[in-house]
């Protein structure tokens, strides 16, 4: 990963041209200009922010090296942030015009799946953990809170057929949640074909809903039947809240800490999250949702989340921490993919770039990309009543084997029953398993 360094904020070298600089110096200059622009924007110094954006415009490029590419989208996000503060209507209109269609959304999700090993690893580990939790069961329910394609569940069915050869009757019910009906229809058809091929009794329950509008207890899931829940890179969106109102809830911080200490003295408050149970802004929506999932009594629930912390109230903090996370993701692509590949550019612009913009330029309920580290998810889930489940050792072995087909740099780290997918020792995604 590119070393993120700082220089004297008052140094005039920030405003000098890049001529004569080597790449490292230019990269440091870009980082400092981005941080300066965020500081100026947050303090209301829009002239200073505009000057920083002007100089950034001569240094960044969507077709350059990984730092130039990631900085392109941070520069765009900071420019949008300035418009948001000065011209409230313009950014909203631009977002309406640039909203991705459903096929485009599916395309960029598939590109993320293809270019990175993260989702393949997550699916492999999740499926093995589910298979082991369902050993001996003849009826299995799966609740998918973040469906993008049917591959995970076709692979699960194949794995179940291999492991449960002595179980002639096996019924699988998949309940999937998505805002788009057409995505669910396509998924259902694909799964039905695979279930028939493998001779499973199969039922598909499509639920057209956003995650934030969902009441888990209204789902068509039979109480008492074995249930597995999967949520991939979606749970953090429930942390979206009216930040101004949430700040008023600071008094709940001490109370939340006292509750956790009474429940489990081993849990220590983490100051690294703006909306953790220990933060000034606990999320009531998240608390209700997790309580609803707990009442479904799952045998296993697997959660995959970004191992980053971009949910601070401060713009400068969000820019700094998001830059660390996303510059690493761009480094992964730089090491494995040609700069001229169209798919790479589409992925960077339409998915990673849009996430960066949401983190930097959006506030309140519009800011959905509120990644938090696993250390803040642990007490939140334990407060809801969930207990930890070890990640499947066979899943870890398969994931390690899978990584051998990728460029050197990727590896997995197993710690305290949890799994982290890393690039050059930097954790990028966490996998955790829980039970009722």
TrEMBL record:
Residue numbers spanned by region VHIID: 109-174
Domain of life: Eukaryota
Positions of the UniProt region annotated as SAW: 361-435
InterPro entries hit by this protein: TF_GRAS (IPR005202)
Subcellular location field: Nucleus
Sorted UniProt keywords: Nucleus, Transcription, Transcription regulation
Coiled coil: none
Motif, LXXLL motif: chain positions: 235-239
UniProt key word Nucleotide-binding: no
Classification via PANTHER family: OSJNBA0084A10.13 PROTEIN-RELATED
Similarity section: Belongs to the GRAS family.
Protein known as: Scarecrow-like protein 3
């Amino acid at each position: 990963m590119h070393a993120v360094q700082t220089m004297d904020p008052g140094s005039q070298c920030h405003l000098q041209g890049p001529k004569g600089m080597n790449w490292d110096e230019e990269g440091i200059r870009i980082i400092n200009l981005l941080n300066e622009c965020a500081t100026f924007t947050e303090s209301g110094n829009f002239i200073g922010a505009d000057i920083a954006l002007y100089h950034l415009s001569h240094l960044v490029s969507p077709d350059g090296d990984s730092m130039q590419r990631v900085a392109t989208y941070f520069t765009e996000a900071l420019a949008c942030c300035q418009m948001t503060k000065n011209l409230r209507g313009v950014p909203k209109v631009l977002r309406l015009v640039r909203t991705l269609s459903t096929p485009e959304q599916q395309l960029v999700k598939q590109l993320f799946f293809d270019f990175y090993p993260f989702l393949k690893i997550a699916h492999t580990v999740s499926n093995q953990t589910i298979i082991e939790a369902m050993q001996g069961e003849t009826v299995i329910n799966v609740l998918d809170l973040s469906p993008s394609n049917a591959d995970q569940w076709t692979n699960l069915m194949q794995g179940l057929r291999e492991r449960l050869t002595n179980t002639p009757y096996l019924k699988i019910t998949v309940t999937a949640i998505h805002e788009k009906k057409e995505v669910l229809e396509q998924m259902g058809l694909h799964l039905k074909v695979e279930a028939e091929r493998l001779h499973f009794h199969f039922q598909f329950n499509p639920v057209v809903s956003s995650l934030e509008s969902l009441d888990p207890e209204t789902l068509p899931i039979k109480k008492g039947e074995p249930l597995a829940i999967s949520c991939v890179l979606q749970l953090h969106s429930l942390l979206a809240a009216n930040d101004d109102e949430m700040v008023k809830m600071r008094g709940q911080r001490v109370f939340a800490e006292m509750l956790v200490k009474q429940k489990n003295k081993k849990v220590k408050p983490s100051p690294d999250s703006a909306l953790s149970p220990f933060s000034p802004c606990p999320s009531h929506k998240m608390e209700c949702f997790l309580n609803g999932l707990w009442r479904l009594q799952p045998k296993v629930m697997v959660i995959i989340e970004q191992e980053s912390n971009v949910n601070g109230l401060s713009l400068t903090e969000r820019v700094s921490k998001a830059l660390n996370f996303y510059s690493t993701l761009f480094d992964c692509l730089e090491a494995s993919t040609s700069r001229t590949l169209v798919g790479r550019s589409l992925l960077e612009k339409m998915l990673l770039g849009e996430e960066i913009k949401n983190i930097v330029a959006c506030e309140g309920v519009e800011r959905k990309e509120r990644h938090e580290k696993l250390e803040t998810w642990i007490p939140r889930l334990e407060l809801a009543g969930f207990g930890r489940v070890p990640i499947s050792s066979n899943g870890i072995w398969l994931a390690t084997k899978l990584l051998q087909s990728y460029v050197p740099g990727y590896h997995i780290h197993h710690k305290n029953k949890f799994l982290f997918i890393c690039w050059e020792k930097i954790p990028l995604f966490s996998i955790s398993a829980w039970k009722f």
